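Hi everyone, sorry if this is the wrong subforum. Our group has a chain we'd like a structural model of before ordering constructs, and none of us has done structure prediction before. Sequence below.
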Amino acid sequence: MNLEKTKVLKILDRAILFSLYVVAFELPISKGVIESFSILAIFCFIAVKIIKREGIPGSHINFSIFVYLLICFLSIFISSNFKISFRTFFDKTLQNAAFFFVASEWLNSERRMRNFVYILLASSFFLGIDGIYQHFTHTDFIRHRPYFGIPRIHATFGAPSDFGCYLSAVIPFTLIAFFGKFNDKKYLKFIFLCLFILLFICLMLTVSRGSWFAFIAFMLLICIWIKALGMLFLIIGLFIIITQQFYDPYLRERLTKFFILEEQSSKDRLMIWGVAKNMFISRPWVGVGIGTFMFNFDRFLTKVYPYGTPYAHNCYLQMAAETGIIGLVSFLTILALFFYKGIKILTNKKMSFSFYILLAILASVLGYSVQMGLDTNFYSLDLGMLFWLLLGAGVAAMKLASVVNSTNVKGDI
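Answer:
Right subforum, don't worry. Here is the predicted structure as tokens:
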């Protein structure tokens, strides 16, 4: 390779890495910025592949993503609305999945991964402060989002559940940074603990049951490998029970009726799920077309829904309605392979830096996946990209951990 190509590749490498860091920081702040820099990273990634004359590494997870993309692409041509499906696939689905490949190949060293996590946590700190500020002033000082008139915080996001999804995706990194071999400096561990407390308080103030279920799920996963975290989990539970009487009535009621779906918002959600079920039944194998749930909503509505056309508030149901059993199974296969490969590596119990990062990402994706069953997070631009970014970072962490564990990386992940 001549000197000129080497220089170009070095510039492209830096552009991709910088774009990844920008997206990680700006995810909860600016959709325009993350859209622009994710596209920049993807184009630079393609340029590197062309110059090096190499393709995407062969692996089970990569193959399953290609299958999922193929099914989504074919869904365009049998869609109930070709234009919507075409735009959804190329503007969102393909772009987000491409960003996965960028993250999985460019977070390829401990230094890069550590910087990625630090940037993610730094961004979450500002969001946490914004959330607390909003709780007391009803004002978001970063994006000046309007107050909804209910005692729930949403910070820079459009809804409290979206903020809760972001928090449940980031909190595992604070726990791993505190309990794991992320950094031995005591003052940093103290900072990570304070950040966890800040983000957990915000998570409670979102009053999002989906996010709370996500928190419980990822805490149970991490407790399998970090036993000390089980004690913290117990303390948190006892603290909430003891102090519950001092909480805002809205938060207190949601906690006491954690598993009871009787308020109006829950009834509305059950109605929407019924529409999604009817839509799925109409074309169970191939669905009505990717991105067309809202387009078809009124057609399958059995009674008046006064709040405008919504998402399904269950990403799996919406996926089944839009792309059928085939599309849903292909997506679940990606998740199944991701968790299978990740947990298989963790069972080697070589607790290096990459081990703890992989554990944090598995916990983060688990929490995200749980909330997908109750909310719309996968279908928003910022949180949808967060999912693929975490998935890519997880595959990169598997490669790093596999090298440490002296296992065969190529073709196995």
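For your construct planning: The first helix runs from residue 3 to 26. The CA atoms of residues 184 and 300 lie 57 Å apart.
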